[in-house]
Design a protein that fits this description.
mainly alpha; 11 helices
Length: 266
């Protein structure tokens, strides 16, 4: 990576950071929804644990699932919203006329995704300790493996969603918010894969997040880190991310040929 590339990536990250820090509603939004979701599922787990011995044994699986799902969802939203900032300001065509290369643009979106995620995730994870005594940070090296796999998945989804919006205009913007929820039932966030019908389980196991959430439940319930699940997730993520990059580049080339870079409306 050349010094010029690093400067271009840093310049884009700085642009998105100025947009973020200059708007307190944007910052509040990064914390508000994760907090509401964590509290809702946390109190539900407390209630169910009081009524069921099985739920009491499940420990913090609900809260852990919520926090890990937030890494995936917020990582993708952070990636896609930074991209949409260029669409909303009609600045994308200007960027594409500069020396900025596609991979530098993607790298800047990835960095900003992590920054936006950290702003919301850190305080919410600390609140989980204060309210429910669930310390996600106590998972140690396992948390690093969970985070790495989920954030790569979020980038892959963000690339696909951004590419669709790039090619079809802001009329497809709703897909940015809805695509992750298509994975929610299949990724087995709140329940094990065995709950799904037998014919649906192979499709679920083909998704990287499924292995992360299975690994999280194994760690919490059995006190055992399943490295095999993480290796499966990493391998699937490598394939998914490479395919997503190829798809984004194809969408970009298609939009250039169609002239849609200069027609960013709905």
């Amino acid at each position: 990576m050349t010094r010029a590339s690093l400067r271009r990536i840093f310049a884009l990250v700085l642009r998105y950071w100025y947009l973020l820090q200059g708007s307190w509603p944007r910052i509040v939004d990064l914390v508000y929804w994760p907090t509401v979701q964590m509290l809702m599922w946390g109190f539900l787990q407390v209630y169910l644990a009081e009524k069921s011995s099985a739920m009491a044994l499940a420990g913090g699986t609900f809260i852990g699932s919520v926090l890990l799902w937030d890494i995936l969802f917020r990582g993708q939203i952070g990636f896609s919203v930074s991209f949409l900032e260029e669409m909303w300001s009609r600045n994308l065509a200007n960027l594409m006329m500069t020396p900025l290369r596609v991979w530098e643009f993607i790298a800047a979106l990835m960095v900003m995704s992590v920054i936006r995620l950290a702003i919301g995730f850190v305080p919410v994870s600390l609140m989980a300790i204060a309210f429910f005594g669930f310390n996600l940070w106590g998972l140690g090296i396992a948390l690093a493996a969970f985070f790495a796999n989920l954030i790569v998945t979020s980038w892959a989804i963000g690339l696909i969603a951004s590419g669709v919006v790039l090619r079809n205009g802001l009329g497809a913007e709703a897909l940015v918010w809805s695509i992750p929820f298509l994975l929610l039932p299949l990724a087995c966030v709140y329940y094990p894969v065995e709950v799904l019908p037998a014919w649906l389980q192979p499709l679920s196991l083909a998704l990287p997040p499924t292995h992360v959430f299975e690994g999280m439940r194994t760690l919490i319930l059995e006190q055992r880190f399943d490295a095999g699940e993480m290796l499966w997730a990493a391998g699937l993520n490598a394939v998914c991310f490479a395919a997503a990059v190829a798809a984004f580049v194809a969408f970009l080339k298609s939009s250039r040929r169609a002239g849609s870079l200069l027609q960013l409306g709905e």
